[in-house]
Design goal:
alpha/beta; TIM Barrel; 12-stranded mixed beta sheet; 9 helices; binds S-adenosylmethionine; binds iron/sulfur cluster
Length: 336
């Protein structure tokens, strides 16, 4: 599938729940914490149909996200089905990491990290903005840093193709921890990416006071480590730009949605929200109600395909975040 701007679509992010066991301020505003009613959330069968039809149209990579995907019941059996779909070559998950060392099944000691590996997951992205227990508690509303660190270690021990750590940059909150996060990622053998704060959930989050650009983070890193070497040919699935640190050769990624004007050029993604909206772009209000289509009794796969192609056709050239963007859906209900 290719849109009118030449974006080739091969990647679908599937949000399986809007629920979460944490309460990150930038993702779910405190004044708006109600969950979707069950019947509004797509069933796993419906999601698998979307993936199957998408795969026939060239989708080859899936990332399961949320909310916190591991809080939805039977997430593992859904995930294990993904790899059995013809055309799906890579499956990743984005998680806050808090549940990775928890028992995956009531009748076995196997933890989620191991069960995810067994279910065919290739890559795990774990959010980690701070290594300070108090700051973590404050930012996420939960005192779970130790569990997350144990989860990261468990994921690394499982030998996933990649374990990536994602840190959202926030001035005064974690700018003084950038070096520590780098050291931690190196010790754990994880690929670290720094992400610019986006006005996805509330526009207030993107205040002068909170925002820190990836360019500034790069400067801070260079101050300590020396000049970063750009790695234009090193790519993961997303829009991150990667650099290498001198001496150690450690790779660091930067996701600069707000300040990188080339950010959208190589976009290859669509997003399926857990209530069945197909979104062509994270930073645009465009969304199309696939649930209604899926739940119509006579709807054929050909109809679903046509729906997909129309959404691709509406994909904007670039996001609207720099254009007085007013959020209308919480990040937790989109799927990061
Ligand atoms: N619960 C999982 C997690 O925390 O990784 C998956 C869902 S979460 C919405 C996915 C990613 O979106 C996380 O890395 C989170 O830090 C990021 N995120 C949420 N709100 C954001 C915002 N306003 N700006 C930038 N990144 C954000
Ligand atoms: Fe939950 Fe992830 Fe959003 Fe934090 S960023 S509230 S962990 S979904």
């Amino acid at each position: 599938m290719e849109d009118r701007y030449g974006h080739r679509i091969s990647y679908l992010r599937v949000s399986i729940t809007d629920r979460c066991n944490e309460r990150c301020h930038y993702c779910m505003p405190t004044e708006d914490q109600q969950w979707l009613p069950r019947e509004e959330v797509l069933s796993y069968e419906e999601m698998l149909r979307v993936v199957r039809v998408g795969a026939e149209l060239g989708i080859s990579k899936i990332r399961v996200t949320g909310g916190e995907p591991l809080t939805r019941k039977n997430a593992l059996s859904f995930i294990s089905e993904l790899k059995t779909i013809d055309g799906i070559e890579e499956v990743g998950i984005s998680t806050n990491g808090t549940l990775l060392t928890r028992r995956a099944y009531p009748d076995s000691d196997q933890h989620y990290a191991s069960a995810l590996r067994q279910a065919g997951v290739d890559t795990v992205n774990i959010s980690l903005d701070t290594l300070d227990r108090e700051a973590y508690h404050k930012a996420t509303g939960r005192d779970l840093l130790d569990q997350v660190v144990a989860g990261i270690q468990a994921a690394v021990a499982e030998g996933f193709d990649k374990v990536k750590l994602n840190a959202v940059l926030m001035r005064h909150r974690n700018e003084h921890e950038i070096w520590d996060l780098i050291e931690f990622a190196r010790e754990q053998g994880c690929l670290l990416r720094f992400i610019e704060l986006m006005p996805v959930s509330t526009s207030e989050v993107l205040s002068e006071e909170n925002f820190m650009s990836t360019g500034e983070a790069r400067k801070l890193i260079e101050f300590k480590y020396g000049a970063l070497q750009p790695l234009p040919d090193f790519k993961t699935n997303g829009p991150a730009s990667y650099y290498e640190l001198p001496d150690t050769g450690q790779r660091i990624g930067f996701i600069g949605a707000m300040t990188n004007f080339h950010f959208c050029e190589t976009c290859n993604k669509l997003r399926l929200t857990c209530d069945g909206k197909l979104r062509p772009c994270l930073g645009s209000h465009l969304e199309f109600d696939m649930r209604q289509v899926l739940r119509e009794p006579d709807m054929t796969d050909e109809d679903v395909k046509r729906f997909f192609l129309n959404v691709v056709d509406s994909k904007p050239e670039q996001h609207d975040f720099r254009d007085q963007y007013q959020p209308n859906r919480r990040m937790i209900a989109i799927g990061g």
